[in-house]
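Database export, one record per block. Field names are fixed; values are copied verbatim from the stored entry.
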Amino acid sequence: MRRAAVALAAGAMAVSLAACGSAKESGDNADSTGSAKKGDDIKVGLLLPENATARYEKFDRPLIQKKVKELTNGKGEVVYANAKQDASTQNQQVDTMVTNKVDVLIVDAVDSKAIAGSVKKAKDAGIPVVAYDRLAEGPIDAYTSFDNETVGKTQGEALLKALGDKAKDGQIVMMNGSSTDPNAAQFKKGAHSVLDGKVKIGREYDTKEWKPENANSNMEGAISALGKDKIVGVYSANDGMAGGIITALKAAGIADIPVTGQDAELAGVQRIVTGEQYMSVYKPYPQEADVAAEMAVALAQGKSLDSIAKDKVDSPTTKAIPSVLVPVVSLTKDNIKDTVIKDGIYTVNEICAGKYKAACDKIGLK
């Protein structure tokens, strides 16, 4: 597995993304600005999709709030709401933000299609919208995320490496994310591009709402259908689901098979340390959050995005959205120090607390 150190220079690591979907309506986003030029006294609406995944409350929210303050000399305000995985709630939250006349919106959509009408409502009210982490539909003004197909490829490559010769004989289970999340489809596509033809996929699931309990239930079904001696590995699209999957594997007496993940959640990193989970995908949240804040402040102040967003992506509804895509890193027990610890995401003491100390000592994580 490659070792990598992550440089968090906002915008410098942007990579291009091929256009996805067919354009049903065109939008001239390249010159989008706020309805009027403003100073530092701006109001940024921040809508995140759920709070079951640790990253949103631990990283995304505070990082965006900090960067907005920094960019506005302490005068900018972030108005926050979390939809708790409910698309209707998120649409109502957009309505509230519009009513309260925020100057710009950062939206991480629960459902990329269901949010389109609310995005248009904000746009009609003169409020530009930054799609964060997931490419929402509707007249989006800017977008930042990670290269999601590369995430899936990274997971698939790691799984094949861990399987070695076992890939020829056994079967894997694929536990994809929610069908309402466009990122999940891209992760799946990337993973299939690597796994197809190299290993037999015994069962595959799109996991409702990304919930660990749903992944657990799906995994139990896969074990029952395939037989516990036939499964040699599991593709899990994120760490939360990996936790539910590993619980099901343990209950069935299945051990020592590789399970992938994503998000480098603390629990996921700790499972990597103990060997229960093989890898995760570390996504440098500070860079993604900084870019989102930079885009939002620029749009609210009526400034061009040209110096921030060097690339363009197409959504199913809007063409040429100014975008910044951040590279990712395959995280295994070999590069924990070079990634999440080096970047200040976790300390050694946090990872190696309590029952994890012995496992940390064993891999030299001190």
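Remark 1: The two ends are 21 Å apart (CA to CA).
Remark 2: The longest strand covers residues 200-206.
End of record.
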